[in-house]
Amino acid sequence: MRDLASARIVAAMQTGGPFYKQLWFQTLVSIVIGAALGIATDGKSAEWFGWMGKLFVRLLKMVIVPLILTSIVTGVASVGTGKTLGRLGAKTLAYYLATSLAAILTGLVLVNALRPGVGADLVDTQGADLPELTTMGSVSEIFEKMIPTNPIAAMASGDMLAIIFFAILLGVGIAHLPSGRDRTLRDLFEQGFDLMMLLTSGIIRLLPLGVLGLISTAVAKSGAGTLQAVGVYAITIVAGLAIHMLVTLPLFLFLLGRMSPLRHYRNMAEAMITAFSTSSSSATLPVTIRSVRERVGVSNQVTSFVLPMGATINMDGTALYECVGAIFIAQVLGVELTFAQQATVVLTALLASIGAAGIPSAGLVMIFLVTEAVNLKGAEVATIVGIMLAVDRPLDMLRTMVNITSDSVGAAIIAKSEGESEVNAA
Ligand code: ASP
């Protein structure tokens, strides 16, 4: 019965036929048209098409909370008790850590080699007209917020870490219920998950329209003039993200999973485009889960375990960004960071990426956590971050794409290591 339902979902999703009828191709065309229109009309097109992007993101967000809850509960409950849960958990965390650190170190090397902030006179010249910034809490606050005092309230406010924590406990609890007493609950969550995936599939059909709206708006919002002023900074980040996306993650895929990176990336195209257009790992999560399940071919169990947590915790692109951004700020201010301070940046960049929510520009705000750890504080830091915010959109689009790609690579590698041989098969 369950297999039948899943098969129907897959069938409904596969849009065969010539390339111009494929969703990814139509969406790419949308990106080009959206960008061209945005530039040609000097951002006016955002007024015409912006609403389509907004509606699309709202639809995606609508399914996130029930999707995360049902997906994690199903995944954890099906892993069962004790040993397997521990093994999957350990593999997942090890993967998150390894790739995030690899990304940070790539950023560290690049920012020290290119030195984008040295000589950049940002503080005096561009102090006016800054967007408002809110600083994020401390490291202990991140951990504290993981335990919801009221799970319903956490769900109502979309508090991801808290929902994940609660869902894991529910899953473990169901796995420990005496046999026979767990059937209804398992069915409820499993079928709820299938239902959310079905809704997601419908929403994804709107991808080309949503992307047209999102890209028009993004073009209108990104300050091209400011981008020139901080050009080397932007180049450093783009180069770092490119190395991580095109060298590091493919190496992980190939060396640890013996899989073709090209095939994996092709399977993930829709999710990557969605991440690029929405700048939000959370909003992309429904698409990521669908692509990893239906195209990459990872089991429900591993998908449900690795992806929802990954969307919040495992952010390689953001981690790289935190490191480059913080050291860039130090360079602009003329502060030479010692080795120990750079090590602190690496560590706090990792924490900041874990704590950053999967929403647009969340990573930028978390940068205060990193700068404060090395004692860079005050109005000047806020001014530089304000300027960084003015050019954040395109960088955010790219790092979000890297974030969700890393999650998908992790899911594929872990599935392979669990003996799922059809993953990324031809
Ligand atoms: N927008 C990113 C994401 O959702 C987070 C960030 O700002 O770095 O993955």
Overall description:
The chain is mainly α and 426 residues long. The protein has a single domain (2-417), classed as Orthogonal Bundle (Proton glutamate symport protein), CATH 1.10.3860. Residues 1-15 and 125-136 have low confidence and may be disordered. It contains 20 helices and no strands. The chain is globular. Helix 13 runs antiparallel to helix 14. The protein is 77% helix and 0% strand. It has helices at 2-13, 23-40, 45-79, 83-114, 139-144, 151-156, 160-176, 183-204, 207-221, 224-229, 231-257, 261-267, 269-278, 281-296, 300-313, 316-332, 339-355, 362-373, 379-390, 392-417. Aspartic acid binds next to helix 16, helix 18 and helix 20.
Distance linking N and C termini: 27 Å
Q: What structural class is derived from the secondary structure elements?
A: mainly alpha
Number of helices: 20
Number of domains: 1
CATH-defined fold name: Proton glutamate symport protein
Q: Indicate the percent of residues in helices.
A: over 70%
Distinct compounds present:
aspartic acid
Which CATH first-tier class would you pick?
Mainly Alpha
Looking at this structure, what is the CATH superfamily? Sodium:dicarboxylate symporter
Shape: globular
Number of strands: 0
| Poorly predicted sequence stretches spanning 5 or more consecutive residues | 1-15, 125-136
Task: Return the CATH architecture.
Answer: Orthogonal Bundle
Oligomer designation: single chain
Biggest sheet details: none
The succession of helices and strands, N to C, reads HHHHHHHHHHHHHHHHHHHH
Q: Please, what is the average pLDDT?
A: 85
Radius of gyration: 21 Å
- Estimated share of beta-strand residues: under 5%
